[in-house]
Amino acid sequence: MQIEQGSTATSYEEYIETKMYVLNDNNVYEEFMKKEEKRILYNNPSGSNGNITLLDNAENYDYLEIFFVDNNKHDYNSLKFNPNRENITLSLQSGYTDSSGLHWTSRFSVFNISGKNVTSDDTRNGLANITNNFNIKEIRSGNFIYITKIIGYKD
Length: 155
Known about the structure:
The protein has strands spanning 21-23, 29-31, 37-48, 52-53, 63-70, 76-81, 87-98, 101-114, 117-131, 136-141, 145-154. The two termini are 33 Å apart. Strand 5 (63-70) and strand 6 (76-81) form a beta hairpin. It is elongated. By secondary structure, it is mainly beta. The chain has one domain. The strands form three sheets. Strands 4, 7, 8, 9 and 10 form a five-stranded antiparallel beta sheet that branches. A four-stranded antiparallel beta sheet has the order 3-11-5-6, with no helix packed on it. It has a two-stranded antiparallel ribbon with strand order 1-2.
């Protein structure tokens, strides 16, 4: 941008951005930031791998956070995403050792989110168990992902 001297005066408006500061515990002023609003839309510590009804319409939020576990209830994960997506894939990977060696297990499930409804797509879910030498030990269809909590966030 280049500013040049002109022969006629022009009007201008000052731009002032108001900020609020708060005194913290260390006696230092820091800028007060608006916190994002959040609401728990679903909470079930046991989890559900079926259909879920939310307390509010998912489309009312800027993004959702889903907490989920596997069918053994010891693998835990969360995922944040834009609720305007119709389908969301949840997946968990874990390893374990038994008498035949090390194994890797991957579980995945596709859920559809529309309004207040979260439904499992029973045609797109399953489990794969692979041994340490990349042999397939087991492949099963079924929903092995359990949703335990869904939080909606508004910026």
